[in-house]
Write a structure and sequence with these properties.
Keywords: Methyltransferase, Transferase. The protein is α/β, with parallel strands linked by helices. It has nine helices and eight strands.
Amino acid sequence: MSTQRPVGAITRGTTNPNRLRRCDRWLAGPQAWRLRRSPEPPVVVDLGYGASPITAVELYDRLSAVRTDLDVVGVEIDPARVDAGKPLEHEHLSFRLGGFEVPLGGRDATVVRAFNVLRQYDEDQVTSAWGRLQDRLAPDGLLVDGTCDEVGRLATWVALDRAGPLSLTLSMRLAALDDPATVAERLPKALIHRNVPGEPVHAYLQALSRAWARSSPHASYGARQRFLATAGALREAGWPLEDGPSRWRLGEITVAWSAVAPQSSPGAAT
């Protein structure tokens, strides 16, 4: 057994059932090919799952529908939180002590989901944390660095493979949504301080807000139709969206990272 000290800091631990359902739905949908392609039983990591192990349990329940032999590993830096998960362990679900080093006993991760983890770190710590986690990925592996509100109605995440960032996804509960740009308060740490004039992510959110306003005539047919029109307008305007109507109907929209990446990397001089 390794005596290496876990890398990272203890998070606040706030969690709720169903809080990460939007990201799980995306992993089981557009990203399911990563699980299916894995030549070995895939390992999916719930990093920093918090005071309750429920998100790891839900992650297994949702992704095992894609690949029945996958293993979900909840990794926490707080020993008490690991102990809380132990009674729920079974053949394909386990909990262990660790941090950004992601201890998997020599295995590589097909997915590392780190939600509401890097939010508490400084922006200049993001790149090094990403690098540590990317080093733990399998060849087709994916790192998801995300943030959401307390009940999971607003969520955003950056997806990265071993080479670097791929995309930014915004996912919102459309009912009673006033302006999709309100999701800005839940941007991942790499972007939240970049939502200022002159930065690409600010331009993207402003374009999203304008398109939503211009699509108001569709509101009489429901928020879903309005959001479909909004996303379609963004695509027509040249934003490199990576998904389509089947995802937009869910209040989800994914754009290429190249369109929203900071003018300089996190931590670099601006």
